[in-house]
């Protein structure tokens, strides 16, 4: 083997070792963040398009400048002379680099996104309860960010850390005259959408609320059953 071929092989090994692959049986999310604040109509349109994309995510969460696509593994049955077997796989072989490149390119080309910065990351989960916990935390952070925004920064990170939700609502009312409970759910919590199928037809269902940790089964069913 020539030195050139040997060096090429070593470099290819470095590249392969640096590529992280999502395990076939894992769940994962693709998180896309951008430095542009979008209207509810525009972000909902982008989210809906992603919900119908290939491969279809289990669901899509969005708020004014973030979108998270949740994926399960794809199961394909194939037959062998001695019987059948199941093959589990992800888009683009589950390669982090390839998936990030795909969604960065797709979002950069979206005409509704006139932004100078798009950040794409992948979060892996071993079980559905981890997905629910992650989504609940994301929704909580969205509500915290909205409190700061509505108060024009008067509600600080320190207040968020040491005050109860009820106290923060009172502070918001005192600072701005805005009643938290009068604000529509989507700006406060973002929204989760998924496809539901019934009698050979599909339609979108939405959920926009603060997650209640006591109702894990409700959210698990939302992801699992269509």
Task: Please give a structural write-up.
The protein is an alpha+beta fold and 226 residues long. It has one domain (19-224): 2-Layer Sandwich (Alpha-Beta Plaits), CATH 3.30.70.3000. Helices cover 42% and strands 25% of the residues. The protein is built from 8 helices and 8 strands, in the order αβαββββαβααααββα. It has a 6-stranded antiparallel β-sheet with strand order 6-1-3-2-7-8, sandwiched between helices. The protein has a two-stranded antiparallel sheet with strand order 4-5. A hairpin with a 2-residue loop joins β4 (74-80) and β5 (83-89). The N and C termini lie far apart (56 Å). The model has no long low-confidence stretch (mean pLDDT 87).
Relevant terms:
8 helices; alpha+beta; 8 strands; two-stranded antiparallel ribbon; 226 residues; Alpha-Beta Plaits; 6-stranded antiparallel β-sheet
What integer is the average pLDDT?
A: 87
How helix-rich are the residues, as a percent range? Answer: 40-55%
Task: Give the CATH architecture.
Answer: 2-Layer Sandwich
What's the total number of strands? 8
Low-pLDDT ranges: none
Physical arrangement of strands within the biggest beta sheet: 6-1-3-2-7-8
Shape: globular
**Fold-level CATH name:** Alpha-Beta Plaits
Please, what is the CATH homologous superfamily?
tRNA(His) guanylyltransferase (Thg1)
């Amino acid at each position: 083997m020539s030195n050139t071929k040997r060096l090429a092989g070593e470099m290819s090994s470095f590249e392969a070792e640096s590529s992280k692959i999502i395990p076939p049986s894992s769940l994962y999310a693709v998180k896309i963040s951008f430095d542009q604040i979008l209207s509810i109509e525009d972000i909902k349109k982008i989210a809906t398009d992603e919900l119908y994309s290939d491969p279809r995510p289990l669901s899509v969460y969005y708020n004014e400048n973030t979108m998270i696509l949740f994926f399960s593994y794809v199961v394909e049955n194939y037959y062998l002379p001695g019987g059948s077997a199941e093959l589990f796989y992800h888009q683009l072989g589950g390669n982090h680099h390839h998936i990030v490149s795909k969604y960065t390119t797709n979002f950069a080309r979206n005409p509704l996104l006139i932004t100078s910065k798009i950040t794409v990351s992948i979060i892996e989960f071993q079980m559905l309860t981890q997905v629910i916990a992650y989504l609940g935390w994301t929704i909580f952070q969205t509500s915290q960010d909205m409190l700061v925004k509505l108060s024009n920064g008067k509600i600080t990170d320190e207040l968020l850390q040491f005050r109860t939700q009820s106290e923060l609502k009172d502070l918001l009312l005192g600072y701005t005259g805005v009643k938290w409970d009068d604000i529509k759910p989507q700006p406060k919590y973002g929204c989760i959408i998924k496809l539901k199928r019934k009698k050979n037809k599909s339609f979108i269902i939405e959920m926009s609320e603060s997650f209640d940790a006591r109702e894990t089964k409700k959210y698990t069913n939302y992801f699992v059953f269509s």
